[in-house]
Design a protein that fits this description.
Layout (H helix, E strand, L loop, with lengths): L19 E6 H6 L4 H11 L3 E5 L5 H17 L3 E5 L2 H6 L4 E4 L6 H8 L4 E6 L2 H7 L6 E4 L16 H14 L4 E4 L7 H6 L4 E4 L9 H12 L1
Parallel strand pairs: 1-2, 1-8, 2-3, 3-4, 4-5, 5-6, 6-7, 7-8
Helix pairs in contact: 2-3, 2-9
Length: about 220
Amino acid sequence: MTDGRIPHRIPNPKSQIPVLNAIVDAECAAQAGWTPVDLADAYLRGGARFLQLRAKTMSSAALLDAASAIVSRAHRAGAIVIVNDRADIARLADADGVHVGQDDLPPGDARRVVGDRAMVGVSTHTDAQVARAMEGPVSYVAIGPVFGTSTKATGYGAIGLDLVRVAANRTAARNLPLLAIGGITIETAARVIEAGATSVAVISDLLRTGDPEQRVREYLRALA
């Protein structure tokens, strides 16, 4: 991470991340006729200020190109970008951080790559995983899938709002933001926030209408 980055873009563990995490999933974007960069642009125009780039099958070179372009656009808009799985790409693209899963780099190792000022988020699916994640140098904890979803295979069933509430109580004790993901729609997003999540991460429902820019605006109004 460069030392010249604008500090407000890098939430520390006590900060509150934006209420909507618009996930730029490269495969879902392609199915809907979007490139990752164009989709990120649409989300930013709609008002999203917290993007996550997810590209499970993209080559490292292509992912770095896409991440660098998205980070540049996002930072001009005052938005933050995290890269899913790839701490190395996050650092090279000057992203604001990395999001790791249970089978990726442990949060401590990811932080060694991205640096002390970057965000490190970690996915969890059980109460025990939430407790374990909080022992590491994380900036936020993610919990899911809240509802049933076919977009992101986790190997875990839907956890429901009850576990969101349990996770919210745990993370609140450390002033850590809680990100909820999995099957969230514009009809259910507000209930997830009411259950204690700081932010909701959305993939497919932002693409559902064919107008992701307007869909982001609708989400932000629904969550206001």
